[in-house]
Amino acid sequence: MTTIQHISTSRRIKDRVVQGLVYLAFAAAVVPLVSVLWLVISNGLARFDLEFLTHSMNGIGARDAHGGAYHAIIGTLQQVLLAGVISVPIGLFTAIYLVEYGNNGRLSRAISFFVDVMTGIPSVVAGLFVFAFWILFLGFEYSGWAGALALSILMMPTVVRSAEEMLRLVPNDLREASYALGVAKWRTIVKVVLPTAFTGIVTGIMLAVARVAGETAPLLMTVFFTNSINHDPFSGPQMGLPLFVFDQAARPNDTAVDRAWTGALTLILIVMLLNLVARLIAWWRSPARGR
Amino acid sequence: MSKQIQVSGLDAYYGSHKAIEDVSMTIEPRSITAFIGPSGCGKSTFLRTLNRMHEVIPGARVEGKVLLDGEDLYAPTVEPVSVRRMIGMVFQRPNPFPTMSIYENVAAGLRLNGRVSKSEMDGIVEESLKGANLWNEVKDRLNKPGAGLSGGQQQRLCIARAIAVRPQVLLMDEPCSALDPISTLAIEDLMAKLKDQYTIVIVTHNMQQAARVSDRTAFFNLAEQGKPGKVVEMDETSRMFTNPSQKATEDYITGRFG
């Protein structure tokens, strides 16, 4: 005959121990995050002023305290935007092919494999590739566009993977419901599948943007380097925020190191701002909002 | 408005697996035809061959003829999309489009297919919702999401969505299996009403439902596990349920197997 049993002491202890471990793991994850944020904010605030946001480093002497990252901010925004313009459509269409048309055939498996390979490409290699192909082989000059090309190589696989996952989450019922209404397949994808997956796809794109915005290595060999403002991403060297941080932090003066911290802070803020915008778009389009 | 369906020698496959074999039947216009039979005997598969939804599944194919008022739906030049526009379908699980409001759900079929003026669309949406006995419950919240309705309301919304494109035939794949008795009754009433305008085919596991709503009934069964499903018998519903000619039908209906 079975009786009601009480929880044994050993189980209670195990429960406590595991609980403790979980909290510990949480702390181990959060402490570095918070300390990084704290360090960047406390060190970066010193130079986070209007001059920093509106001036370049043009004509700033090695020991001068002034100067700013306007040229780098413009560069980063343009490069990331261009990288997105290249990789989002390609990535999205690839994901649509894989989910809606591929039927797990030979081509779609090959694409899947190469996307995985692309995910593993070190960012330096992406930069080197664009440097070798675009600048050395085809003979174009250093430009923001070349940087965008390198970034888009890194961005594409992330977009494909996240969009693919989101599209697979769309229940097949909805596709069938649409087909049963006599709606053609491509219209079903455009009007039913994509809107249903929209929020997730936007989030995935933002993650890809965030990843790419902080890349230094691919920019080194493609946008080159400059201290002055270049509004045209298609000609001449440009700057990027990660490059700016890299450059300033390597200089021996405190004034330059301060600028590096502020550059890092600006970069974090830009990524956060972009994320916020994406959240807003997703919220605005979300079905649960009840219009 | 409604049309007759004639099926002859129809086989349906999933890859190399033959799911149904040699089905022939005539489905009369302005009537309700019910398909009954144990699970896995191919009722739903057969239903889906009637509007070319079967082939949507990768690897699935169909052999044989389905004539809609004499026109072969499987003729090589026939556009499957146009077939589905003429033969609407309601699924087992209510599946309103989650990103769309109630209004947009009903309008979806027309809106996704071409341009209809706003005023005309308003009229069609109202008429379809009235046709699906849902208008009074939702007329004040047409702009709310369709997914916010109850299960029974969602299913009626799906019916409204299906009839908004004015099909000739309405196929229903166990439309009440996920619903409570009251919603089921609402949908059965609705079927009786729609029968005046549409050819209705319904798959059901509920014997009483088949007996209540249908004019003719077809009994599907497998010869044995792994073999393709076949139509054992098809007749007037009243005769099927009182005096079936096949022993298997009688056994199934009286609950002796399946």
UniProtKB/TrEMBL annotation, chain A:
Top-level lineage group: Bacteria
Membrane topology: Multi-pass membrane protein
Pfam families xref list: BPD_transp_1
Primary localisation category: membrane
Keywords: Cell membrane, Membrane, Phosphate transport, Transmembrane, Transmembrane helix, Transport
Lineage: Bacteria, Bacillati, Actinomycetota, Actinomycetes, Streptosporangiales
Ubl conjugation as UniProt keyword: no
UniProt gene name: pstA
Subcellular location: Cell membrane
Transport among keywords: yes
GO cellular component annotations of the record: plasma membrane
Transmembrane segments: 21-41, 80-99, 111-136, 142-160, 192-213, 260-282
Organism, scientific name: Nonomuraea aridisoli
Role: Part of the binding-protein-dependent transport system for phosphate; probably responsible for the translocation of the substrate across the membrane.
Database matches in InterPro entries: MetI-like (IPR000515), MetI-like_sf (IPR035906), Phosphate_PstA (IPR005672), Phosphate_transprt_permease (IPR051408)
Family: Belongs to the binding-protein-dependent transport system permease family. CysTW subfamily.
Protein name, entry field: Phosphate transport system permease protein PstA
Gene3D superfamilies: MetI-like (1.10.3720.10)
ABC transmembrane type-1 domain location: 73-278
UniProtKB/TrEMBL annotation, chain B:
Source organism: Nonomuraea aridisoli
Keywords for this protein: ATP-binding, Nucleotide-binding, Translocase, Transport
A Pfam family it matches: ABC_tran
Alphabetized Gene3D superfamilies for the sequence: P-loop containing nucleotide triphosphate hydrolases (3.40.50.300)
Protein name (database record): Phosphate ABC transporter ATP-binding protein
UniProt xrefs under PROSITE patterns: ABC_TRANSPORTER_1, ABC_TRANSPORTER_2
NCBIfam families recorded: 3a0107s01c2 (TIGR00972)
Entry's Gene Ontology cellular component terms: membrane
PANTHER family linked to this entry: ABC TRANSPORTER I FAMILY MEMBER 17 (PTHR43423)
Residue ranges constituting the ABC transporter domain according to the UniProt record: 5-247
